[in-house]
């Protein structure tokens, strides 16, 4: 983890966010700022509201109250497609790839989307040298260039997760959101995933929801803790690790 230097400009800001589902209150007055270039982790026990918060940020849900800003522009309730065009991209907790396509075709589709090119039967994709070059660059970054002709669904679980990260970065976003990127991975796959995340998010802004505290503390510059729908604490990893409130609510004494 790189040493974090305090900055002043937020790329993402949440102000007074509330969310309820048919009377069930999930988030309560959440205020959060994510600074340009930082790697910000959101942690908390099951049911804390992490996934709901992620879905609000990425436009899947609209907050019941409050406002969301991306690069100083109000984006409350803006749909995911437009947010992607504005420089935001996300992965999902459940692998979200095109399983019957090749690895190359998966990433190329994302590159085509970034370049606003529609895929259709009349497209002469084999002649699109720049698109193919960009695709191979992404595959190289995620370590799957040698498997570009493999069917995506036949990759190992760890490789499928790497491919999904590739789809996320293929649009060259300024803000990357990863939802439980190491969920279900072996120890070795997790170590490789951490290296990959550190590499592909260099110079970008990252928000990561993650249950593995070793992953969090090795990647994050700052950590926010959600507890029963509220931000319990926000600070540097060392501050969060030693915060008694966090220990009591989530980490536990055994995680010192």
Strands of the widest sheet, in order across it, are 6-7-8-3-9-10
- Beta-strand fraction estimate: 15-25%
Question: Nearest-angstrom radius of gyration?
Answer: 19 Å
Determine and state the CATH class of the domain at 9-80 and 207-256. Alpha Beta
How many DSSP H or I helices? 9
Query: CATH H level of the domain at 9-80 and 207-256: which superfamily?
Result: P-loop containing nucleotide triphosphate hydrolases
Unreliable stretches covering 5 or more consecutive residues: none
CATH architecture of the domain at 9-80 and 207-256: 3-Layer(aba) Sandwich
SSE string, helices as H and strands as E: EEEHEEHEHHHEHEHEEHH
SSE layout and pairings?
Layout (H helix, E strand, L loop, with lengths): L9 E12 L2 E12 L3 E5 L6 H8 L7 E6 L2 E2 L5 H6 L2 E3 L12 H12 L14 H13 L15 H13 L5 E5 L7 H14 L4 E5 L3 H7 L2 E6 L2 E6 L1 H5 L2 H8 L5
Parallel strand pairs: 3-8, 3-9, 6-7, 7-8
Antiparallel strand pairs: 1-2, 1-4, 4-5, 9-10
Q: How does this model look, in words?
A:
The chain is α/β, with parallel strands linked by helices and 256 residues long. It has a domain at 9-80 and 207-256: P-loop containing nucleotide triphosphate hydrolases (Rossmann fold), CATH 3.40.50. Helix content is 34%, strand content 24%. It has nine helices and ten strands. The protein has helices at residues 50-57, 80-85, 103-114, 129-141, 157-169, 187-200, 213-219, 237-241, 244-251; strands spanning 10-21, 24-35, 39-43, 65-70, 73-74, 88-90, 175-179, 205-209, 222-227, 230-235. It has a six-stranded mixed sheet, with helices on both faces. A hairpin with a 2-residue loop joins strand 1 (10-21) and strand 2. Helix 3 packs parallel to helix 5 (157-169) and helix 5 (157-169) packs parallel to helix 6 (187-200). It is globular and about 50 Å long. The model has no long low-confidence stretch (mean pLDDT 88).
